[in-house]
Specification:
- The chain has 139 residues and is an alpha+beta fold.
- It has one domain: SH3 type barrels, CATH 2.30.30.
- Helix content is 19%, strand content 34%.
- The protein contains two helices and five strands, in the order αβββββα.
- A five-stranded antiparallel beta sheet has the order 4-3-2-1-5, with no helix packed on it.
- A hairpin with a 5-residue loop joins β1 and β2.
- The radius of gyration is 20 Å and the shape is globular.
Length: 139
Amino acid sequence: MGRNALIEAVEQGQLKKDIPSFRVGDTVKVDIRIVEEGGKERVQSFSGTCIARKGTGISETFSLHRIAYGEGMERVIFLHSPLVVGIEVVRHGTARRGKLYYLRGTSGKAAKVKGRYEPAVKAEEIELQEAVVVEETPA
């Protein structure tokens, strides 16, 4: 086992499995654990538009951008960090570029990203799929 293979094996154990799939342009809500004085912990939510994704493996990061109280805020978050409690995709957006850095200087309508249509699975289709699975399993 070479050095790179050993490092990759250690990294595989550290990767999170429950990460939803999201792309640049999506609005994402991230819950981050914050350690305060005295060892107290609390969870803080940060919601914003994903303007960049970089890296691979354990060092993969994504940048969230939002405008709060008229001021632009940006936060770079490690995807597999143990401080990240949860990631939730709030809204899917369409982006024709890999990085949306042009959103940094904008406000109002110019800072919006168009929505992307995600077809929802109807409840009837789910029931039909479950019925087929039940019929196929031998008793």
